[in-house]
TrEMBL record, chain A:
Bilayer topology annotation: Multi-pass membrane protein
Primary location: membrane
CDD domains: TM_PBP2
Residues of the ABC transmembrane type-1 domain: 77-259
Protein name: Phosphonate ABC transporter, permease protein PhnE
Keywords: Cell membrane, Membrane, Transmembrane, Transmembrane helix, Transport
One Pfam family hit: BPD_transp_1
Transmembrane segments: 21-39, 83-107, 128-155, 175-192, 213-234, 240-262
Family: Belongs to the binding-protein-dependent transport system permease family.
Compartments, as annotated in UniProt: Cell membrane
Organism for this UniProt entry: Aliiroseovarius zhejiangensis
Family matches, as PROSITE patterns: ABC_TM1
UniProtKB/TrEMBL annotation, chain B:
Organism: Aliiroseovarius zhejiangensis
NCBIfam families in alphabetical order: ABC_phnC
Gene, per the UniProt record: phnC
Protein known as: Phosphonates import ATP-binding protein PhnC
Domain ABC transporter positions: 2-246
Organism domain of life: Bacteria
Length: 267, 258
């Protein structure tokens, strides 16, 4: 090893923005904007103080949680479970063809754009907003919840599945084509086996996720335990509301644990 | 008989990868194609079963012009052309039997394929061929549980299940160790004789090409510059085939070819 006196012995990682002036201007700009936003936000400290008192009343009324009307609670929870199950089944069934449409490596360009468009639309609205629309369309109740969560499932499952399809080993598809296999047989033999583990994992995750979301969309009238919770709040039954919240948290913990276990098994 | 006339393949607007190529394969001969990487061997093979679209020229298999076929007719023609791949291209998560039967997908309905209701004679044929290459006891195993040599045997049986009129092998031994590689080459040669099947093999290993094939075609960047028996492949011919650069060779006027 030879090293001349000219060989440098210091090195610095090149900065993300090469121009020094531009770099500092960007940093300064971001900091100034955040400070300005914080300063210009109207925060009424009196209302904050009032809120503290009100919060105390709510929590005071909530303890101890009341399970007196557990019949209502169980009904609401079972309805949520039904909504989540139906929505997952429907959502996953619709997601598979949409995912195939939205996979660049197997779909013709116009179909690909159509598939992507469906996914983008399904993803662009939060379930609560979708639920409000469906409640308007089909009325209060679990049916609106199911429709909402089907849209929500498509947005996630179809997107992730399409990405998995784009990652497949295309050699297997080539082998089927070389054998003269028709289109559908090729999908079933060369692509399905490759995406199946992901498909199962996604479905289980989505069931878990739908159960959580079904509690939220219930609040805007789409049925399930969310509706029960909204009613309890509306009638100032804070102790019942706390009981419902405890059940929701417990159910989500259990479903998360179970789905995690199953997904670990198949991967 | 496979008859290729004036075949040209050009990707985009670039220089052609195959230039006015002519090649005829008759009877049940085992023909190997040698040449450096990028010479167009793989493209040539894939033009035959239209995994790659030829730009112009004609490819005729036993009287059927392949280059103009579409849809159902193309699939029917592909059934008659078996292909063996370098990376085997088996469906890892399916059983050996399912992989073998996937060679019949062009013959059976999608419904039968999905339900795995394979015709009795296909199952019998599968067992016969698997027995012949020594993998019958793996029928129920998943394809990814097998070793490289065994996997390529599955690949060969899958191609033979198509009841092909010609077998194409795209570097079938490049992913295998030397010993297994020789076994597979021997197997291809023997099967060609037993089934009266012409076989066209892309191969990098010139020694194996000389031992196991009846005729060697040497390609250099889109052209065939050697086509003779293995004995005639001397050092000079070898140097010719493996010299040149892709760019310089492809740029020269196409009329010069052949």
């Amino acid at each position: 090893m030879s090293s001349t006196p000219d060989t440098p012995d210091t090195w610095r990682k090149p900065p993300f923005i090469a121009n020094r002036w531009l770099r500092w201007a960007v940093y300064l700009g971001i900091i100034t904007y955040i400070l300005w936003v914080g300063a210009s936000m109207p925060i009424d400290w009196e209302r904050v103080a009032d809120g503290l008192g009100r919060a105390k009343r709510i929590f005071g009324g909530a303890f101890p949680p009341s399970f007196d009307r557990s019949g209502l609670l169980i009904d609401g929870f079972l309805e949520s479970l039904k909504i989540a199950l139906l929505a997952t089944a429907g959502g996953v069934a619709l997601s598979v063809p949409i995912a195939f449409m939205a996979a660049r490596n197997i779909a013709p360009l116009p179909i690909y754009y159509l598939g992507r468009a469906i996914i983008i639309i399904a993803r662009s609205f939060h379930p609560v907003i979708v639920a409000i629309i469906f409640v308007k369309a089909v009325g209060f109740g679990p049916f609106a919840g199911v429709l909402t969560l089907i849209v929500y499932s498509i947005g996630f499952v179809a997107k992730m599945l399409a990405e998995r399809i784009e990652e497949i080993d295309f050699g297997q598809v080539e082998a089927m084509r070389a054998a003269g296999a028709p289109y559908l047989s090729t999908l079933v033999y060369a692509i399905m086996p490759q995406i199946m583990p992901r498909q199962i994992g996604l479905s289980i995750y989505q069931l878990d996720s739908n159960l959580r979301a079904s509690a939220v969309v219930g609040i805007v009238g789409a049925g399930g335990i969310g509706a029960t919770l909204a009613n309890a709040f509306g009638r100032y039954d804070y102790d019942f509301a706390l009981a419902i919240t405890i059940v929701i948290v417990g159910a989500i913990l259990i479903s998360e644990g179970v789905s995690g276990m199953i997904r670990k098994r198949i991967s | 008989m496979l008859k290729i006339t004036d075949l040209v393949k050009r990707y985009g607007k670039g220089d052609p990868v195959l230039k006015n190529l002519d090649l005829t394969i008759e009877g049940e001969s085992v023909v190997s194609i040698i040449g450096s990487s990028g010479a167009g061997k793989s493209t040539l093979l894939r033009c035959i079963n239209r995994l790659v679209e030829p730009t112009s020229g004609s490819i005729e298999l036993n009287g059927t012009e392949l280059t103009t076929l579409h849809g159902r007719e193309l699939r029917a023609a592909r059934r008659k052309i078996g292909m063996v791949f370098q990376s085997f291209n088996l469906v890892d998560r399916l059983t050996v039997m399912e992989n073998v039967q996937s060679g019949r997908l062009g013959y059976i309905s999608t419904w039968a394929a999905v339900m795995r209701r394979y015709p009795k004679k296909d199952i019998r044929r599968a067992y016969e061929l698997m027995e012949r290459v020594g993998i019958a006891h793996y029928a129920d195993k998943r394809a990814d549980e097998l070793s490289g040599g065994e996997r390529q045997r599955v690949g060969v049986v899958r191609a033979l299940m198509q009841d092909p009129e010609i077998l194409l092998a795209d570097e079938p031994t490049a992913s295998l160790d030397p010993k297994t590689s020789e076994q597979i080459m021997g197997l291809l040669r023997d099967l060609a004789g037993e089934l009266k099947l012409p076989v066209l093999i892309n191969i990098h290993n010139v020694t194996e090409a000389k031992i196991y094939t009846d005729r060697i075609v040497g390609m250099r960047y889109g052209r065939i510059i050697f086509d003779d028996t293995p004995d005639s492949l001397d050092q000079e011919a070898m140097d010719q085939i493996y010299s040149g650069s892709p760019h310089a060779d492809r740029k020269t006027d196409m009329k010069e070819a052949s």
